[in-house]
Design goal:
Helix 5 crosses helix 11 and helix 6 packs across helix 9. This protein has 17 helices and 16 strands. The chain has two domains: about 300 residues, BirA Bifunctional Protein, domain 2 (2-Layer Sandwich); about 90 residues, 3-Layer(aba) Sandwich (Rossmann fold). The strands form three sheets. It has an eight-stranded mixed β-sheet. Strands 13-12-14-15-16 form a five-stranded mixed β-sheet. It is α+β, with helices and mostly antiparallel strands.
């Protein structure tokens, strides 16, 4: 045993993704990119680190506690990207003269939060965002809902619900409940947990925030019930967004008002929404809304914006539970075996030909391995086809293609090989 061997392990809340899982992630990312770009969204990437002042104070008290913050070697106060919305606001303010308006962007990058790791919660995870900056219209609100819905359809989800609300309605509820304005956001951060904790725990947390005993059940609940039955009159703008969403093609059965949708981040200003998938009970897989004041913190003038973010890990988990991933989720289609050193050039020629035809092909790189070992290697990797060129095949200027799934094999010329594999 090697002396002072280092134990191989990952940090708590961080993960490795071996090929089987990484392929699933790449499959989902590619599908989302295709949908986003079909709606005119363009890619954006931002640094993992931002100045602390850029990120702090934008997510509420709880968000600030979960940020990774430190001083770099130059003594600068920095923080790791907590989400992708605040960096987007910084980008728009910094490059506003170079960007087209409206600016439609998507961003698929990691974010970091000092969460208490548990099922579905990690300290490093991928977010997939799409946003429209520079438009303040119900139609743009509806378009982001549609892009989210079409993304789910692309991934194979058939039964899901878009549940929407408005911060304007929630603020009126706070007002009717006689909650001081300075406590509105902190109250909403607690109400955002309504599906995660008991009503008793909800009341305790609100009471601890100085809002009195039994706040939810005796003060907030009646006001929430009132707007639930009359939401279209409570916020005509939200009603117009709903109408536009139906006109754009979201089925009416897939979209509805729900007063318990809160979205706990401080920067939301208008319409907010979440998406839940039938058959997946862990929670919403998507959330977003309008945030018209955030960019103004960096630009000196308000620039309207609306967007959404997918919980990527929940998407993967839901697709696994509902068996939506293709059975043949592979990256390599063919393994070209090497029969022996004398026939290596034949195998290289076959491999080069297949690659020139854009067929993902791997050449076995050990000249003296027996064929059984090579076939086991292909099977373990999930490669469906192997090409074998032994003395008999070489003498006849043919190759043997074996389908490892069915066990069937066929002799064919090199010229016909690529066409047959693509058929």
């Amino acid at each position: 045993m090697i002396k002072d061997m280092i134990e191989p392990k990952t940090l708590k809340g961080f993960r490795d993704f071996l090929p089987k899982e990484a392929k699933k992630r790449q499959y989902v990312i590619q599908a989302l990119k295709e949908v986003f770009e079909s709606y005119g969204f363009e890619p954006l990437e931002t640094p993992a680190l931002e100045y602390d002042e850029i990120l702090s104070g934008k997510y509420g008290e709880e968000g600030d506690k979960l940020m990774y913050r430190f001083e770099d070697r130059g003594g600068r106060k920095v923080a790791m990207r907590y989400d992708q919305t605040v960096p987007l606001a910084r980008v728009v303010a910094q490059y506003q003269n170079e960007l087209p308006m409206p600016f439609k962007r998507y961003q698929i990058q990691n974010v970091w939060r000092a969460e208490n790791p548990q099922k579905g919660r990690y300290r490093e995870f991928l977010q997939c965002d799409a946003d429209i900056v520079g438009l303040d219209t119900p139609l743009s609100d509806a378009e982001v809902m549609l892009a989210a819905a079409k993304s789910l359809e692309k991934l194979g989800f058939k039964k899901f619900r878009i549940l929407f609300n408005s911060r304007n309605i929630l603020y009126r509820i706070m007002q009717e409940a006689n909650i001081p304005e300075e406590k509105w956001n902190t109250t909403l951060q607690t109400l955002d947990k309504i599906k995660k904790v008991s009503l008793d725990d909800l009341d305790k947390e609100l009471s601890n925030k100085g809002l009195g005993e039994k706040t939810f059940s005796t003060i907030l609940d009646p006001a929430i019930f009132k707007v639930t039955t009359n939401w279209k009159n409570e916020d005509p703008r939200l009603s117009e967004t709903y109408k536009n969403a139906i006109e754009l093609g979201i089925p009416q059965k897939n979209i509805d008002f729900m007063s318990s949708i809160v979205r706990g981040l401080d920067y939301y200003t208008g319409m907010i929404f979440e998406i839940e998938i039938e058959g997946y009970d862990i929670g919403s897989v998507c959330g977003g809304g309008r945030y018209d004041k955030l960019i103004g913190m960096f630009s000196g003038k308000d620039i309207p914006a609306v967007g959404f973010s997918f919980g990527f890990d929940r998407l993967i988990e839901a697709m696994d539970e509902l068996k939506l991933f293709p059975d043949d989720l592979i990256s390599t289609k063919v393994l070209v075996t090497v029969f022996n050193k004398d026939l290596l050039s034949k195998s290289i020629d076959a491999c080069s030909l297949l690659r020139s035809k854009n067929i993902n092909t791997e050449l076995f790189l050990e000249e003296n391995s027996n064929l059984e070992k090579q076939l086991k290697y292909a099977d373990k990797k999930g490669i469906p086809y192997v090409v074998i060129i032994g003395p008999e095949e070489s003498a006849k200027n043919l190759v043997k293609i074996k389908d490892l799934r069915s066990g069937k094999q066929k002799e064919i010329s090199q010229e016909e090989m690529a066409e047959w594999l693509n058929s």
